[in-house]
Structure formats: structure tokens, C-alpha cells
Specification:
alpha+beta; two-stranded antiparallel sheet; 4 helices; 9 strands
């Protein structure tokens, strides 16, 4: 085997291992999106998540857009995007951390199950943030008591940013 063939074989092996483990080109582990939304688990006892929707220090964001109930693939994965650029992660942190707190008793009749799930990778944990695309446009990272977590209201700016990244063409 020539040196060139050996290098190509080694690169192919490393690439396959990275794909299999969820590692990115920057070496950051990023969880994969589930095939269906099925109400992502939203409970965290991480103290930083009580102070910030997206606490500082995220290494990567995996953004998963799930389809609504009125589609051919109800709750199926529509698209996923991985963000590893520091500036883009910080932009999301600013947008998410400036949302206003919402009501815990809101009724959302236009909610069709369309949701974006943001999987934020940190050195020692992963934080799940859910953003409802229809209805009340709730945002939560699961902080607070189980079943009684804090709900924030998504800004139009955040919704448009997420829509552009994930190819969402619906209305809010």
C-alpha cells in the first residue's frame, strides 16, 4: 500500500468514527436529534440553567426542527443544524437570555406540535431547550420544579432566526 492510500484509508476511518460518535470537526461532542420529538425531556437541576435559558460556556448547539401534527410525518424530524462557531453560539445566548418570562397557565389553541429543540453541548453536560413554533411560542430549558418549569416567550427575532437556519416556512 502506498503512503497516499494509507493516508486516505486513515482519514476515512477517522471520519467514520467521528460520525458514529457524534464528534464534530472541532472535536466537540454533539448529540444527535431524535427521529421524532415526542415531548423532549425538559427537567434540569443544573443551577446555571435557573439563571440563564442558555448558560455561558456552550461548545456546540444542535438545532432540531420537528414537524407539526398536521403534516405527512407528524412530530418527525424536519431538519437539523449544528452550530460550533463561538460568535453564533453567543448570539443565540443573547437572544435566549433576554426573553421575558411567560405565564404557567396559558392556553395555546393554535399549537400544532411544531417545535425546535436546541441541544446545547457543554464540557460535562447537555442542556435541552424547547421552542414551540406555533401557539404560545413558549421557550423552556426545564429549570424549576419537575412539571412546573419556567416558560419564556419567544421573540419574533428568535423565531425568524431559527426559521431561517432550519428552513421553516410556516407562520408563527
Amino acid at each position: 500500500m502506498t503512503l497516499r492510500a494509507a493516508l486516505i484509508s486513515a482519514l476515512a476511518t477517522v471520519s467514520l468514527l467521528a460520525i458514529a460518535t457524534g464528534a464534530t470537526a472541532t472535536g466537540v461532542h454533539s448529540p444527535r436529534c431524535a427521529k421524532q420529538s415526542r415531548d423532549p425531556p425538559l427537567h434540569t437541576s443544573w443551577p446555571a440553567a435557573r439563571r440563564h435559558v442558555l448558560p455561558p460556556g456552550a461548545l456546540a448547539l444542535r438545532i432540531c426542527r420537528y414537524l407539526g401534527l398536521n403534516t405527512r410525518s407528524p412530530e418527525g424530524l424536519g431538519r437539523s443544524v449544528l452550530i460550533v462557531r463561538r460568535g453564533e453560539i453567543e448570539r443565540f445566548a443573547r437572544e435566549l437570555n433576554h426573553l421575558r418570562l411567560g405565564s404557567l397557565t396559558a392556553k395555546c389553541p393554535k399549537d400544532d406540535g411544531s417545535v425546535i429543540v436546541i441541544l446545547a453541548s457543554y464540557p460535562r453536560t447537555t442542556l435541552t431547550i424547547a421552542v414551540d413554533l406555533r401557539g404560545c411560542n413558549d421557550v423552556s430549558n426545564g429549570s424549576g420544579a419537575p412539571g412546573g418549569f419556567r416558560r419564556y416567550i419567544a421573540s419574533m427575532r428568535l423565531l425568524k432566526h431559527l426559521a431561517k437556519l432550519t428552513g421553516y416556512r410556516g407562520y408563527f
